What we know:
This protein is α+β, with helices and mostly antiparallel strands. It has helices spanning 15-24, 67-77, 103-114, and strands at 3-11, 31-36, 44-46, 49-51, 54-63, 86-93.
Amino acid sequence: MRFKVILAMVNDQFQTDVIESAKKAGATGVTILNARGEGIHEQKSFFGMQMEAQRDMLLFVVEDFVCDEIMEAISQAGNFNKPGNGIAFCWAVDRAIGLESQIPVMEKDAKDKYF
C-alpha cells in the first residue's frame, strides 16, 4: 500500500466538521495536535502580550488513492476558501508502521472502489 500524510491547520470552530468530513471521504483516523501559527499579517497584541490564534493541527495518514477526496472534504468543511481559516497539504510517506488495525478497512475501501 502507498500512503500519504495530510496535515491540516484548522480553526477550532471547524475541527469537528473537518474530522467528520475527512472520515466520510475515507480517512480512518486522525491525530490532533495543538498549535500556534503566524501568517503574513502581524499578530495583535494586548498590553504588549501577543494574542496568538490557537489552531488545531490534524494529521491524517491515508491511502494514496483517497488523498485528493479527503483534501477536498477538508477544504470544504474548514471553509478554506476564506482567508485565515487554515491550510492543508500532503506529502508521500516512505514507510509507516502501527497501522495494522486500519489496514483491513483501507484494503476493503480500495477493493470496493477499484474492483
